Amino acid sequence: MAQQLALTDDDLAPVERGADKIQVFAPDLAFRTFSIVNVIFFGLPGEGSDWVLIDTGLPTSAGAIRACAENRFGLGTRPRAIIMTHAHFDHAGSVEQLSQEWDVPVYAHPLEEPYLRGQASYPPADPMVGGGAMALLSPLFPRSPVDVSSRLQMLPIDHGVPGMPGWRWLHTPGHSPGHISLFRDSDRTLIAGDAVVTTAQESVYAVMTQKPEIHGPPRYLTPNWIEAEQSVQLLAGLEPELIVTGHGLPVRGAGMRARLHELAENFRAVAVPQGGTYDLNPANPGKSDNDAYR
C-alpha cells in the first residue's frame, strides 16, 4: 500500500481565483480543474496575447476551456499551440474538438503518437492497486485513442517547447510511454503532468478535498513502474521551486522539495502498488529510435 508524503498549507502556491473558475498561480500561468484533472494556460493575460494550452481535460471540457481562454486572453482568441503531456482520456478528452475549431498544431512526444493518431489504445487499467473508488472504477475509463493526425507534430528534438520560450520538455515516461514534463530553468517552475501528482488520485475523497500530498503517478493507469521511478528521480534532481501537476494543487518551496526527494529515494515503498499487474510485468510499448527524444 502506498504511503503518504503529506504537505502543509504553507507548501501550497498562492492562487488568485479569476473568472470561470480559473486559478492564477504565476503571472503567466493559470489552470482550471475539470472534475478530476487540471488544464493549464501559459501566457500573460490580455487581449491578443500569445498563449499555449497544456492538455485539454475531459471530453466535456471544450466549451469551458474556450470560455476561460477568452476571459484571460480576449474574445476570439486561439492558442499558438496545444502541448500534450500525454494522451490519457482525462488529458486529451477535448483535443480533437479544440484543435479543429482553433486550427492549431498539437505537439507531443513520438511515443504518444499512436494514441493521438487513432492507432493504438493504452494498456488496461489495474483496479487492484488500492487506494479507493477511483481505482476500482478505472477499468471503465476510456482507453480508445483520439485522432488529431492532420494537426499532430512531434516536439522539437532540441527540447524547446513551441510557443513557450525559456521552457524545455523532459521525457518522463512510466505513466505513459511518451509522457513529458515541462521545466523553466529561470525560476525552476515545473509542469509535471502526471509524472508526480499532489493528491491521492485513487481516492474520490482525496480528489474532492484536495489535501496536498506528494504522490507518484496515478497508480491505476501507470503501466511501467521502473520508468516511473526514473522519471521522479529526474524531476527531483531539478530542485523545482514551483510544481503544478495534472491532479491536485500547485505546490512550492523547501517542504515540497523535501517530500519530492523522499518520493524519489523511497519510490518503491511509497508509490508502487507492490504485487500489482504492472509491478510484476511492466508494459513497455517501445522505445524511440532517436536518443534526442529521451
UniProtKB/TrEMBL annotation:
Residue ranges of domain Metallo-beta-lactamase in the record: 36-247
Pfam families named among the record's database cross-references: Lactamase_B
Gene Ontology MF term list: hydrolase activity
Domain of life of the native organism: Bacteria
Record InterPro entries: Metallo-B-lactamas (IPR001279), NDM-1-like (IPR050855), RibonucZ/Hydroxyglut_hydro (IPR036866)
Alphabetical keyword list: Hydrolase
UniProt keyword Hydrolase present: yes
Keyword Hydrolase on entry: yes
Chain positions covered by the region annotation Disordered: 274-294
Protein name per Swiss-Prot or TrEMBL: MBL fold metallo-hydrolase
Record organism: Xaviernesmea oryzae
